[in-house]
């Protein structure tokens, strides 16, 4: 058992890195796509819709295969490492779902907030960054937490593009030692712990944003 843990932890560290960078990309993609979806400019709106529908409407595994196996071929000739493919594939996939969450969150901000900003002669960019976005992020945190945990669980697919993540290490050790119960019990526990860390982090973020909103309302 002592020999299993270090190798599983190596795989878990890869999973953590993919989850972290994939989550950042997903959040950025979600915000940008949500803004595009709400844009009055038709080309931007249709571009955002196309991205959202393609990544929501196709298999994540096929998307990863496309990025890893198809893009390096002509006429694309775009080659990325397995790690980069994992981050990009997971980030864009979850970001497409997150875009609809963010769109709903932005639309949930009371119209009076927009009117107050207009009355204060606030620039649109400042209005969005200072007033609208913080409130939208607060509303998006609960469903967004679920999406980030889903991203974590989906990292198990990246082993199919040769990345030595936790799932890859678990299968590798199982084939070498036949200690199936012990190995997959440890892997299951590690995924659970990582999911709880995400959950805790998002709860802390939600509390911080809530306090900031309360202070802003009192000023």
From TrEMBL:
One of its GO terms (cellular component) is ATP-binding cassette (ABC) transporter complex. PROSITE patterns: ABC_TM1. One of its GO terms (molecular function) is transmembrane transporter activity. GO terms for biological process: amino acid transport. It comes from the Bacteria. InterPro entries: AA_ABC_transptr_permease_3TM (IPR010065), ArtM/GltK/GlnP/TcyL/YhdX-like (IPR043429), Ectoine_EhuC (IPR014342), MetI-like (IPR000515), MetI-like_sf (IPR035906). CDD domains: TM_PBP2. Residues 12-199 form the ABC transmembrane type-1 domain. The chain crosses the membrane at residues 12-35, 47-69, 81-99, 128-149, 183-205. The keyword Cytoplasm does not apply. It is found in: Cell inner membrane; Cell membrane. It is a multi-pass membrane protein. Keywords: Amino-acid transport, Cell membrane, Membrane, Transmembrane, Transmembrane helix, Transport. Belongs to the binding-protein-dependent transport system permease family. HisMQ subfamily. This is Ectoine/hydroxyectoine ABC transporter, permease protein EhuC.
